[in-house]
Amino acid sequence: MRSALVLNATFEPLSIVPARRAVCLVLADKADIVEDDGTQVRAESLTLPGPLVIRLRYLVKVPYHRRTALSRRAVFARDDHRCQYCGRPADSIDHVLPRSRGGMHVWENVTAACRACNLKKRDRTPRGGRHGAGPRAAHAPRAGLDHGGGPSRPGGVEAVPGARLVSAAPLRGAAGEIHARDLAPPTGPGARLVWIEATGPALVLGSRQAAVPGLVDEAACARDGVEIARRRSGGGAVWLAPGGHLWVDVLVGRDDPRWDDDVTRACGWLGDAWCEALAAEGLASPGDLAVHRGGLVHDVPVCFAAMGPGEVALGGAKLVGLSQRRTREGARFQCVVHARWVPDAYRAYGPGLGEPPAPADVAALPALAGGAAARALVTRLGEVVAAR
Questions:
Q1: Could you give the CA distance from residue 173 to residue 283 in angstroms, rounded to a whole number?
Q2: Which of 307, 345, 368 is nearest to 7 (CA)?
Q3: What are the tens digits of pLDDT across the range 133-178?
């Protein structure tokens, strides 16, 4: 027993403290043990499990972090001093959507570029030519990667041959606001990837659950600052907390060769792409990964208690949750992988959802809690999707 992870009342991680401090918080009735380390702490009149993860009984307000000011030096640092069009050393900055066309001088529209690419692109829009797109996945002729720094991100850019991603950040915002956005799929062949990060804890309900009363404890959510979000795709409820998940949307138009009118078959290729990306990044052994090819198994209120078309299992435990929303323009596939599985969040805020799956039935990847591993996996997924 050496240290313990401290979770906020909303189950988002706060810090790691010495085990002795964790025991003191539990004994002072300020925290509850979520998971123990298998040892016991003994005193004269009591015996306590050795805390590995504890959850505070009160809400700690996490301060808002102001975004870094936009500057030439900061853009070069973000993009590793590399041109985001060709990969050569950058010596200028470029507005992806030219200012003459209404583009703004904001993080999401400024990228590092070499002088040759900047001159070649000139005042063309992202669809105006080979060098008319911003940062995206390396060598990805068919898949673009959105990279946004705040909730005002208007959307991504299409990838072109020779595109290269040096660094990227997720599109951040409230879960409900992101789900409500109309993220348009590309026209013609090609996919669009959007890496998303919810900025606060949220319980996201599927489209069919939104009108079902009694699923969510609204008073508990309001007390602990938990957003109740509703998405427009099907499936069950999903718990999101900053640092606890990886969320990626993949958009495909009806003119793309991967489009399938059969809803059950439509997700299979994306499940295969996830398996290839996870194996390539060393996060899972290829032999342990499996894509579900059939229809929905166990139509239950919690997403990770069921297995739907295209979803991925790791060693028999569900790893990638996937839902889809289909429109006249195309499909929006919404994918989630957990860095931590927190069943107590469902019990606390969604008592009407029933008992959530046990930890053994959900495969979580703790490495994804770090930004570098998540970014690498999203970049790899973009490359894999582009090659399919």
A1: 27
A2: 345
A3: 333 333 333 344 444 333 333 333 333 222 233 335 678 889 999 9
Q: What is the pLDDT of residues 39-50, one digit of tens each?
A: 988 888 888 899
Gyration radius of the chain's alpha carbons: 22
Exposure pattern of 143-171 as b/e (b: 16+ CB <10 Å)?
bbbbbbbeeebebbbbbbeebbbbebbbb
Helices (H) and strands (E) in the chain, counts: 8, 17
Distance, in Å, from the CA atom of 139 to the CA atom of 18, rounded to the nearest integer, reads 45
* Alpha helical stretches, state H, the chain: 19-27, 72-78, 115-121, 175-180, 218-224, 268-280, 343-349, 371-387
d(Cα 294, Cα 43) in Å, to the nearest integer?
A: 54
**109/103 Cα distance (integer angstroms):** 7
Confidence of residue 81 (pLDDT cuts 50, 70, 90): confident
Q: Smallest Cα–Cα separation from 127: which of 105, 165, 170, 156?
A: 156
